[in-house]
Amino acid sequence: MSDLSKVWFLTGASSNFGIALTRALLEAGHKVVATARTPSKLPFETHDALLVLPLDVTDFSSISQAFEDARRHFGRIDVVVNKAGFTTLVELEALSEDKARKVLASQLWGPARVQEIATELFEAQKIQGLILNITSVMAVFSGPLIAIMCAAKAGSEVLTLARARSSPFVTAVNIRPGGFEDHPEVPLEPQPPAFTSKDLGRTLAGTMRTVMSSQSPGQGDVRKMVRALIALAELSKEQLSGAVLLGSEAFAISRIGAMKRVANIQHGQRIINDLKKAGSQSKDARVWFVTGADSTLGRTIVRLLLDAGHRVAAVIPDNVVNSLSTNMDQLLVLRRASTNSVSDISKLLTEAAHHFGNIDVVINTPPGGVQSQQPGDWDTAYALTERIFWSPMNTASAAVKVLRETNPPGVGGRIFNVLTAVDADDTNTSSLHSALNIAVTAATTGLVRELPRKWNIGVSAIIIDPDLHADEETAHVLMKLVDLPHASLPGQLYFGDRAIRTALHAAQVELSEACSKDAMERAMSTDRAHIDSRARIGLFHSLLSVVLSPSPSVLSKLFLLLSALGWGIRMVMFESLRGTFTRS
Fold first, then answer.
1. Would you say residue 416 lies in a domain?
2. Which residues span the domain enclosing 87?
3. Cα–Cα distances in angstroms (integers) from residue 282 to residues 274, 310, 526, in the given order
């Protein structure tokens, strides 16, 4: 083995990206361990520098076995590429729980376990190793039909950056490629009946289905992308940023997403401050469904709601002693099983709706006393995931259906997924807790973008500093949020200095590192030859600014639409001419 060649370990090698990367690596003189769940699907001829192995990222024993076989065969591993993963496209309400959990298992836990074993190997080798985690722009821009995938990708990026800090022998980078498939195979499931009604008008979910069904070729050139990836392995740790964007599409979406995230955080603070100054909540008595009613925040909200004359269905775990009064007509105490299944939650929501006649607000309050996780303690990690991620997301999924079917048309309701800001001092748990918080906000945002406006179902992820959970002012602001019109309700809100500081820091790092001028040049260099990369970046920026701006004025909307028109005309003319010359 020459001093310049490296040993690359690839998961998901049967994907088009994996196939292209394997071939490019072999041509460049590197050694490759190509793994796939079904190795027989790999289209490679026998090669001395190629080792093909079975690996299922959801089967952790197969991960360990593949690494051991690879190390024994080639003597070492230098670069690990995470590409394997399962996904499917469908509205969250229609996504079966088995498939949802399979997405998270393959897209979040699979890469995390691969990275853990890779780190152990790099440390044993005592050489600097590189982990390249292939994610997606959906990690930073949640879309309809893919809420759980967006959650998994967003959480995986956080864990990858944490992995980079975990050992001096590890460099870990997130890779966000744009579209590059010539003939994309889209795992699009049938649209649920409730979303097909023509009176709903044009929806983002419907538009997404139309775009995905067209199977248009991606604008990225996969051969250029894999060459760029190989070049990254030659850079020093100091030369690499936390995220590398491949394709102008990936750059444009990442940049506008980070820019508008800052604007939306600031807009949310103005809303919170206005609500704090506002008078008392609306006099209308509502029906609230409160999960985690045994937590500090849950108890505070239930008490204040009852004092204000609202009716409350308070949900507590079945193994917790009930401290709530049972002698009040306006209070219904429900027991929740240890599982967080959608079907169990649906039964509780239906029982509450039958008892009170309807439900207006569903609020998922966070669990108290998050258990500390030690490195390698996967049982605790999965338990935290049940409490922090699956509990609110399965409740939100079930709540959409109940709110739509039990309330009069257009009345809708509100769903609040409340999370606890991460305690950065708890180094054992903070990375996982951060990843799960970001996963919930990503999935919640995806849900927001797939719900038809006519349903008037507003959904928001709300992150609150732990010392504000017992604060009555915080609870009062949450109660007042219900009075905001659907169009004014932010998809994400942050309460407290820690929550705000963490969110702003993440967005600003994204802007300064991943979205720099050098990053833009690298991203554009991986587009197909006929693509007008600069025009596409401008077009994406203008269109997404209209969608993502928190409160755009009519004048700014007009300016952005005119800008989009100008970029669009340039793109069509340039790409048509270049395509003609390319074919000639």
1. yes
2. 7-247
3. 15, 11, 54
